[in-house]
Amino acid sequence: MQVRELGEQGLLPYLQSFCPPGVVGDDAALLTPTPGQSLVVTTDMLVSGVHFSDQTTSPEDVGWRGAAANLSDLAAMGATPLGLVIALGLPGELELEWVQRLYQGLAECLQHYATVLVGGDICRSSQVTLGITALGQVEPTQAIQRHIAQPGDAIVATGVHGASRAGLELLLQPAWGGSLSAQERHELIRAHQRPRPRFDVVRWLRCYCSELHLPQLRVAGMDSSDGLADAVLQICRASKVGARLYQPQLPIPKPLTRLVELGELKLAQARDWLLYGGEDFELVLCLDPVAAQALVSNLPGAAVVGEVVSGQDVLLVTETGELPLSLTQGFQHFSSSAQS
Amino acid sequence: MQVRELGEQGLLPYLQSFCPPGVVGDDAALLTPTPGQSLVVTTDMLVSGVHFSDQTTSPEDVGWRGAAANLSDLAAMGATPLGLVIALGLPGELELEWVQRLYQGLAECLQHYATVLVGGDICRSSQVTLGITALGQVEPTQAIQRHIAQPGDAIVATGVHGASRAGLELLLQPAWGGSLSAQERHELIRAHQRPRPRFDVVRWLRCYCSELHLPQLRVAGMDSSDGLADAVLQICRASKVGARLYQPQLPIPKPLTRLVELGELKLAQARDWLLYGGEDFELVLCLDPVAAQALVSNLPGAAVVGEVVSGQDVLLVTETGELPLSLTQGFQHFSSSAQS
């Protein structure tokens, strides 16, 4: 059955069944934030053909990724989720099954991170379009922000980078990466299709403060949705500081290291995916080196990748010298090559 | 200049200039709700060619209407606004000026209702698409909801209905309504292009409670964005009650009454616009008849239009008999005629 045949009034009750009882049915949803906490809000628009395609992403994965990308922005603020709303633009000829599967993936992600869908809107559109807004809350003193990095901070990446980009390559060119095991292929593709917002890192930071009786731990940071290099550059720009990243310390997925050793992947390509690939949805955090060391020793895949310095240069230190990092290689909407 | 030439990174700083200083620049915005208040959240998607067209709506009006429609949902919950986020899908060939004018209209509306833009997202899309989410807050005991109407309640419409639909007619067919004065034409068109969310009504209800030392005033209701008839029917369905609307009491715009008297507009057409035209963004409230009378006597254009009764019949009482109201004449997305 097509969306058009069912109509808006027919589709709404089905979609509302994904919300908790009693939450929808009014002009807006009512939520109960914890008194004294700051409210955190982030919004994203995802468009078919720009952000996802049937070739690389099932409807369930579109739902999961859409939810995960927004939840990752909450985690990047040190927040815990309160709920999510979704506005959907749908072509009339779209199969109803596609929408059902989208919502199943979305609901699966929300359930995994103990949060809920609290409202939405549907309308007609020539391209499938998702407008997602996520709401969270954070103790005001525990908010992670970009502008509070200081020289001397260690820079932590909470996991490997480049896996999502390698997974996309496998989806676009299945013949690529012939030496990868089935398990490795699966894991790289999974990194692209099912990114995981790092609320576990947020929880770890809170426990660390609480166990050490720290009244506050200053953590600057953001997520690496637009790439590791982009995150470091954005934090440095907002904090008016520079940074040095040490290439040997950058956490690269093991299968990619192996492909480089086998000569199936050029080192420059692997480095490019790691720094600029994007969509790994890890956190890039700048914090006290002692806390940073404690964090990475408790977090598989995490690494101290560099340090914040004064000045404004953001440099990648390699065996052969220093390279300035630049934003221009990152994903840009509206440019002619902006298809991912 | 086209949006494509400027690119996402070029456009973002310009759009961020519409946000208050310090609010944007992180993965999400931080807001400070009043402790103890419920959080209210509503989202809408607006698509060029479906919800607005260059023929009837300037970019400024698209911005104003988009903001106003979402703010109206907050007013319909009895809430005051905390802020609004907007995700924008834009064709690369769109003129930058169009986006600037859109934001000007949006900002004008937000300023008028003492609230702010707190974040957004932009991406490429084949149709101009706005995903707007508005956030507000309300004292939990003062929330207006659809399911709390009771038999004996008076039904109030906070202003005239049909004006927005008549304004749209004037935009689509400028030759129509020849007997209207320039001022009347302007006011009807304005009703369509610049709807006003009724936060003044929300304030009045709070003052009324406070002056009479009422701990609580039960008010059921919603806004009339999808038409007066739709609002009454939705409230009755949610509250499991019926209603009687008295046609002579329905507040019709004066210019339309005059056109009917002159024979330039059929009575049936005027009644249709009043009940089903939609987009007047008034509030339809069910409350104690004494409070209702006090409200309408303080609110120009407002009227007690009927009463809530037991049972499930929703009837329009005319001079010649009783007619059941139905939803089927309202605006439906995905149907073949769903173009407004």
Describe the structure.
The structure is a homodimer of 340-residue chains. Chain A is α+β, with helices and mostly antiparallel strands and 340 residues long. In chain A, 36% of the residues lie in helices and 22% in strands. The first copy, chain A, has 10 helices and 12 strands. In chain A, the strands form 2 sheets. A 7-stranded mixed beta sheet of chain A has the order 7-9-6-10-8-11-12, sandwiched between helices. A 4-stranded mixed beta sheet of chain A has the order 2-5-3-4. In chain A, α3 links the parallel β3 and β4. The interface between A and B is large, with 77 and 77 residues. β1 of chain A pairs antiparallel with β2 (38-47) of chain B.
Taken from the alpha-carbon principal axes, the silhouette of chain A is globular
Biggest interface: chains and residue counts? A-B, 77 and 77 residues
**H/E element string of chain A?**
HEEHEHEEEHHHEHEHHEHEEE
Low-confidence stretches of chain A: 335-340
**Percentage of residues assigned to helices of chain A:** 25-40%
Note the gap between the termini of chain A: 29 Å
Average pLDDT figure of chain A: 93
Q: Taking Cα atoms only, what radius of gyration of chain A do you get, to the nearest Å?
A: 21 Å
Largest sheet of chain A: 7 strands, mixed
Number of helices of chain A: 10
Q: Which structural class do you get from the secondary structure elements of chain A?
A: alpha+beta
Find the count of extended strands of chain A (DSSP E, 2+ residues).
Answer: 12
- Give the neighbour order of strands across the main sheet of chain A: 7-9-6-10-8-11-12
Relative strand content of chain A = 15-25%
Q: What is the subunit organization of this protein?
A: homodimer
